[in-house]
Design goal:
The chain is mainly β. Helices cover 0% and strands 55% of the residues.
Amino acid sequence: QVQLVESGGGWVQAGGSLRLSCAASISDIDTMAWYRQHPGKQRELVAAITSLGSAKYADSVKGRFTISRDDAKNMVYLQMNSLKPEDTAVYYCNAIEVHGIVYWGQGTQVTVSS
């Protein structure tokens, strides 16, 4: 069974940093991404990175968050700096395998207090 397991969430004060990690039990991943979901809202893309290393970010996190991946370990990371209370959400790891199959992690809570 394919698994994406997130770690690194938690509580931090505004202005602080957290690093999320996601371990995939599969290889041959095309795009890896992080999404987040605020209470009562739809899941939204935070950042994505392709197998060629091309990254894109939501406007709300540009300059503060950095996505990276380690294909040797089938890992994707999200370094989050200068965190704001509005970054509080459940963060989900996402992977699109080369044949187009999409996988999701269970989510990890990030809470930023003001």
